[in-house]
Amino acid sequence: MGKLALHWQILIGIVLAVIAGLLCGPDGAILGVKGVGVFDFIGSLFLRALQMLVVPLILGAVILAAARLGVEKSMGRLGLKTLGYYMGTGLVAILTALIIINVVSPGRVDPAISERLVSLAKTDVKDAQAKIEGHSAADVVGILQRMIPDNVFAAASDNRQMLGLIVFGLLFGYCAGRLPNPQRTGFLQWWQSFYDIMMQITDIVVRFAPIGVFGLVAETVATTGLDTVGPLFRFALCVIAALAFHMFVSLPIILRLFGIHPFRHFAAMAPALLTAVTTASSNATLPMTLECLEKRSGVSERVRGFFIPVGANINTDGTALYECAAAMFIAQIYGIEITLAVQFTVVALALLTSIGVAGVPAASLVAIAIILNAIGLPLEGVGMILAVDRILDMCRTSVNVYGDSCGAVIIARSEGEKLAY
């Protein structure tokens, strides 16, 4: 692929994938082999390769970072900065969604259209109900339990327990950093070698990103086409506008406040953002995020190893924004007036559930169901947004990843590090 920058290679792969997907369609075949099957095979291989890296990269990065923070006795300071960034940007994202949904009111439609959407929800919600059945606001408390895994090895093999694995890694690394020499030196050397090996493997996988992204996008376009938004176009447009505002206005302003050039940072993170859009998974994008922060942004191993694995699991600005917008939209469809007090409840629950249910399958659906239940709306309302959920999932994941990367460079700058831009 010559000297062409990786993000341009990925972008070309996406364009070719859209063309190939539209030409192929759901039933296109060559020599009896379905094109969708080929696309799915290519995309799945790439996704599996990324997921293969997640657990060892998280453990290596978190343990090494925590050990060094333990030596410097600065883990508490970094942790407070991290928590402050998470809560602050999450609140900004949710309020952005709340304002746009209130102003545009995409759910204020003709009663006949509202009835059709409600009817659609009742027929399409069966799969969603199976995923959200039994969940309530009490699930938010479950985050405390998931932080302490009863079996570390089981947590390493279960994507739903990634937060517990991170907590164990932080404790393990911090305590190791408090060991006397020469034990501490040997420990750090071993984990540094382990992490360096994992980054070399990541380099190999990343080289195939344009091909993997081609398979993922082509398969999606071939099976769904480009008209999946349908009657929910206004809602989808509001969510995308809110996500875009947060990504291109709110976060750049925050970057500027810390003397960081927003455009250069966006360009540095382009490969990770394109990967996030196509995989719709912050965890699967984590290897690419670490790669970009190291080689394009110049963030130290100490900061990125601590901030990014934690952020990929609990710093979810895009998800929190989407949960708030979805709950408000569903309320509008049902013709229910949401008072300021109830809107405050929506904001608070969106902020908490974006963290609290991150490890649950169909996390956004579960979180939305919790919010609907808390403000007295029918759970069937979740069925209204299923048609556009996949597209919006891709968009909000890119915002989640970008928010993590912004936090990493901000924390690095606040710690006195010199960035690449």
Q: What would you call the shape?
A: globular
Number of helices: 18
**Poorly predicted tracts of residues:** 123-133
Following the backbone from N to C, one meets helices and strands in this order, namely HEEHHHHHHHHHHHHHHHHH
| Total number of distinct structural domains | 1
- The residue fraction in helices comes out at over 70%
Major sheet attributes: 2 strands, antiparallel
User: What is the CATH H-level superfamily?
Assistant: Sodium:dicarboxylate symporter
Got a strand count?
2
The mean pLDDT is 81
What does this structure look like?
Residues 123-133 have low confidence and may be disordered. The two termini are 26 Å apart. Helix 2 packs parallel to helix 8, helix 2 crosses helix 13 (282-297) and helix 2 (35-72) packs across helix 14. The protein has a single domain (6-414), classed as Proton glutamate symport protein, CATH 1.10.3860. With 421 residues, the protein is an all-alpha fold. It has 18 helices and two strands. Strands 1-2 form a two-stranded antiparallel sheet.
